[in-house]
Design brief:
CATH class of the largest domain: Alpha Beta
Number of helices: 16
CATH architecture of the largest domain: 2-Layer Sandwich
Number of strands: 22
Shape: globular
CATH superfamily of the largest domain: Bira Bifunctional Protein, Domain 2
Structural class: alpha+beta
Strand order of the largest sheet: 6-9-10-22-21-20-17-11
CATH topology of the largest domain: BirA Bifunctional Protein, domain 2
Largest sheet: 8 strands, mixed
Radius of gyration: 30 Å
Bound molecules: aspartic acid
Length: about 600
């Protein structure tokens, strides 16, 4: 039978006991990590969120009744223990903060018993994730996950105090909103009062924060839940936290400045790392050209080189045709890898095929200066040498080339290959934090699927003034006042200066193929508010989960979210989503297609 705490009060968390407490009496409460019964003595590692303290049950201290009770203790039982802090009698455990101490118990209460847990609660668990997520409350007891969530809580607290000190107001925006085409698919919530009408969960507070600027709440900040009904990729979740902000009467540099100081402050406080500001900046065009990515990982080199001019009209038709069709041939120089076995090169070919490229050509420069080359039949020694020179190849280097009529495909595939190779060849220093602002994104992006221009950021992003002249003749050429903050090859945040002039906004909708009526219907409340005095404004939002994940060097955002969802957007613990009672559907006026009860 479990006992109550009555009359007992916890004095410390387990690992908050310090050597200064030696000799004093403490009361600790927590879970049993481990128990060893050595006959006359029972040792228990007691755990709470602060860490572990070793408890010693000795019949001489606790009496026979207490000792008998201690014999019942099993893993994950919840205990209250009162005892004296002493220097450890046995060997000191260097791994524990409390490793030089122990508590000799003279009173024990078993507050709750536990069934044998389905997996051991331990750091760096090897248990498969699905099982851990099903029993997430047990998984959450692991010290590494607890540390992650504690860091996340600190990041949020520090960000709030920093933003407050910079004059930002924390204002919440609705979760039940209106469906607007922001990019991803909305989660919908049916209205009971208006059958057939729906709320949408926010993909971001974007429109509301702009309206707050119209309303005069210059400098808004919020840590907000956002929802996107997308197929999940590795570091995505259907619901996630944004650290969101908007400022009035500012331009790009002002937003960048405050955010550099915010990140510097967080890295200093959490990791005691001094980030150098300002961070590097690169235009989107340069990032694509040099790294084949709009979020380049700058922890290693291996940049892309455009060799189209060198191979134009050459005898190797794969190269020559790509160039003459308006595409490009580009390469990367994998230093010192000329000896890479054929099998490994083949696996790289498979890798690029996954991106839609037909193949990968290679040229290895051996130590004696001779070439081994997949296309040597089609090019003279002299041409090969010219190509190797253009790639700045030295003896021992492996050159890999991609060619296609679609320039974007060449860049993006080589960009991905560059990262894959860096991983495989262990070229990345995991202790590095390489921040980068990517600026001057294109305003519009052509969608093959929809056969129209779409907004690369969102429809409220301001074009660069000097490019406005091309908006009718060459919309793809117009750059936007949009910026992303990139860390170690991941986009951790992004934002833009917003359009605050009616004529430019109308032009933008026109480019996106909205009729006036459509624009009015979708964004009426924003456009209406814009009739009454709009300050120039700009903002940015971080993916908070991702920031914390990278800060801690983790591989998945699930490790910084208490109750994450799995790939198919379901929750292993609660089994959500789940069918609801017919009565609930009736109240909402909903008929579910295919469900027999509804037919
Ligand atoms: N709302 C944008 C997003 O979610 C960020 C911004 O423009 O402030 O990506």
């Amino acid at each position: 039978m479990a006992e109550t705490m009555q009359g007992l009060k916890r004095t410390h968390r387990c690992a908050e006991v310090t050597p200064a407490d030696i000799g004093s009496t403490v009361t600790l409460m927590g879970w049993v990590q481990k128990r060893r019964n050595l006959g006359g003595m029972i040792f228990v590692d007691l755990r709470d969120r602060s860490g572990i303290m070793q408890i010693v049950f000795d019949e001489n201290d606790i009496g026979s009744e207490g000792f008998e009770k201690a014999g019942l203790i099993r893993s994950e039982f919840v205990l209250a223990v009162t005892g004296r802090v002493e220097k450890r009698s046995g060997a000191v455990n260097e791994k524990l903060a409390t490793g030089a101490m122990e508590v000799r118990a003279f009173s024990l209460r078993i507050l709750s018993e536990s069934e044998t847990p389905p997996f051991p609660i331990e750091e760096n668990s090897q248990t498969r994730e699905e099982l851990r997520l099903k029993y997430r409350y047990l998984d959450l007891r692991r010290p590494d996950i607890q540390r992650n969530l504690m860091v996340k809580s600190r990041v949020a607290g520090l960000a709030r105090s920093f933003m407050a000190s910079e004059g930002f107001l924390e204002i919440e925006t609705p979760v039940l909103g209106k469906s607007t085409p922001e990019g991803a698919r909305d989660y919908l919530v049916p209205s009971r009062v208006y059958p057939g009408s729906f709320f949408a969960l926010p993909q971001s507070p974007q429109l509301f924060k702009q309206i707050l600027m119209v309303a005069g709440y210059d400098r808004y900040f919020q840590i907000a839940k956002c929802f996107r009904d997308e197929d999940l990729r590795a570091d995505r979740q259907p619901e996630f936290m944004q650290m969101d902000m908007e400022l009035s009467f500012v331009d790009v540099d002002d937003v960048i400045d405050v955010n550099e100081r915010l990140l510097k402050y967080l890295w200093k406080e959490i990791l005691n790392i001094d980030l150098q500001v300002p961070f590097r900046r690169m235009t989107w065009a340069e990032a694509m050209e040099r790294f084949g990515s709009d979020k380049p990982d700058l922890r290693f080199g291996m940049e892309l080189t455009n060799v189209s001019d060198v191979v134009r009209g050459c005898g190797f038709s794969v190269f020559a045709d790509a160039v003459s069709a308006g595409g490009s041939v580009r390469g990367i120089n994998v230093k010192g890898q000329a000896g890479m076995p054929r099998k490994k090169i083949d696996s790289l070919v498979d890798f690029v095929r996954g991106y839609g490229l037909k193949g990968l050509a290679y040229l290895a420069v051996h130590e004696d200066g001779s070439f081994k080359c997949s296309f040597s039949k089609f090019m003279s020694e002299e041409e090969l040498k010219k190509l190797a020179d253009a790639m700045k190849a030295e003896k021992g280097d492996l050159l890999l080339f991609a060619a296609d009529a679609k320039n974007k495909l060449v860049c993006e595939t080589l960009g991905a290959l560059r990262c894959e190779l860096a991983k495989r060849l262990d070229m990345i220093d995991p202790s590095k934090f390489e921040f980068l602002w990517v600026v001057e994104f294109p305003l519009l992006e052509w969608s093959e699927e929809e056969n129209r221009w779409t907004a690369m950021h969102h429809p409220f992003t301001m074009p660069m003034e000097e490019d406005l002249q091309y908006i009718d003749s060459d919309p793809g050429r117009v750059r936007a006042k949009a910026y992303d903050i990139v860390l170690n090859g991941c986009e951790i945040g992004g934002g833009s200066v917003r359009i605050h002039q009616n004529d430019i906004q109308e032009k933008m909708f026109e480019c996106l193929g909205f009729t006036k009526e459509q624009a009015q219907e979708q964004f009426s409340f924003l456009l209406e508010s814009f009739k009454y005095g709009v300050p120039p404004h700009a903002g940015l939002a971080y993916g908070l989960d991702r920031v914390v994940m990278l800060m801690l060097g983790l591989d998945t955002i699930r490790d910084v979210i208490a109750f994450p969802k799995v790939k198919d957007s379901s929750c292993m613990m609660t089994q959500a989503p789940a069918p609801v009672a017919q009565k609930q559907l009736d109240e909402l006026g909903l008929i579910v297609r295919g469900s027999s009860e509804n037919e």
